[in-house]
Amino acid sequence: METWDLAEVGRFVDDEVAPHANEFDRAERMPEDVLGRVAELGLWAPFLPAESGGWGMDMVTLGRVHEEIGRGCSSLRSLLTVHTMVSASVHRWGSDGQRERWLRPLAEGKALGAFCLTEPDHSGSDSTAEGTKAVPDGDGWILDGRKKWITGGQLADLFMVFAGTGGGMSAFLVEADQPGVDVTPLRHVMGTPASMLATVEFTGVRLEASALLGPRGWAAGTVMTSALDLGRYSVACGSVGIIRAALDACAAYTSARTAGGAALRDLPQVRAMVSNMVTARDAAQLLCQRAGALKDAGDPATIMATWVAKYFASTAAVRAANDAVQIHGANGFSADYPVARLYRDSKVTEVIEGSTQIQELTIAAEAYREVAR
Fold first, then answer.
1. 353 belongs to the catalytic site
2. For residue 124, what pLDDT band results from cuts at 50, 70 and 90?
3. How many CB atoms lie within 10 A of CB 163?
4. How confident is the model at residue 370 (pLDDT cuts 50, 70, 90)?
């Protein structure tokens, strides 16, 4: 696109993503031509400044983009999510050399990023686990360890890897083709299988000093925290897309089907479920917009607003997808309709970037802090 147009993203989703999302799901891959179209539309990292190849897009609009993509295919939205986390981290925490080397390729989709945090031998929710280690070696580092559930790991050119460095966690930029990096695809996952998940193993990977991203030993409170906040925001917005897709599917299906001589759309139970989807869509969208507006304003309140938006939107997406399957009956279990995929993908949103239960603890803790003031 020569100028920014959100409607063009909607047309891309309607014409090239949503009609084929079930095919992507079955193949467990995102086609190269779709990834190329994302690059043509400038969607990989549009929030980056123009001098780095982006559009300088505000966070509210970025959320709408991820909502639109999520409406079509959560696997593609997941790829955008992790790429956003890596690109934003390089922009915020990278050295001049790292920015010069990576930002434009990341913005143009010539280099795709993946976020490597989860340890296979620890709870995925334990972001402080340090199974992966980086030890000093001359003027560089030696990296050893294994990361699992890495979205986009099969196609990434750049891994942002979190590793213990003695006394704290640090982040490193690791190129996928470096010696000692081994990628194993994860197959047959329940949700977002086309996001090309992988286990990534690092065995004696020699890193230059310039691979360190941000401050040594402080990545948990800097690089990781800011990246996860953006990831949480993307997932929240993508969850709104799932609700919209479920609503659209149900409105079309019940308008064309009958039961006992009556149109499905006229049954009170159906109307109640559709009404809940409409309400959830609007409420979740407003919560996401608030979180995005606070990010644009540089207001630290965006952190909690994003937790709330993600909590509400993800749980609402699960309810909407569940009702969508119920409305479709036996057809809801069929690959001929999108709702089975929406059901599986929606559940992913309740687990990644902070599980529902962790969100409940975090949001409640903030409420008690406010009362104690």
1. yes
2. low
3. 24
4. confident
Cα angle 79, 80, 86 (rounded to 5 degrees) comes to: 95
First to last CA, the chain: 49
Q: What is the mean pLDDT of the chain?
A: 94
Q: Which two tokens stand for residue 308?
A: 């709330």
Instruction: State how far the Cα of 151 lies from the Cα of 116, in Å rounded to an integer.
Output: 9
Q: Which two tokens stand for residue 348?
A: 């992913």
pLDDT given for residue 4 in this prediction: 66
Tell me the mean pLDDT in the region 343-362. 92
Spatial contact of 257 and 263, defined as CB atoms under 8 Å apart: yes
SS3 content of the chain, % helix, strand, coil (to 5): 60, 15, 25
pLDDT mean over 223-231: 95
Task: Give the contacts of 59 (CB within 8 A, at least 6 positions apart).
Answer: 47, 233, 292, 293, 295, 296
pLDDT of residue 2: 45
Q: Which residue has the tokens 């955008």?
A: 80
Q: Which of 353, 360, 366, 370 is catalytic?
A: 353
Sorting pLDDT into bands at 50, 70 and 90, what band is 175? Answer: very high
Q: How far is CA 230 from CA 87, 89, 210, in A?
A: 11, 10, 24
310-316-320 Cα angle (round to 5): 145
